[in-house]
Write a structure and sequence with these properties.
P-type potassium transmembrane transporter activity, single chain, K(+)-transporting ATPase subunit F, 1 helix, rod-shaped, KdpF
Amino acid sequence: MMWLLVIIILILAIYLFYALLNPEKF
């Protein structure tokens, strides 16, 4: 259960990072 939470946080962090790098796509 703990690993699932970590994976979700990592995915959200990566998504936000790409959104900051490419704001025109979002």
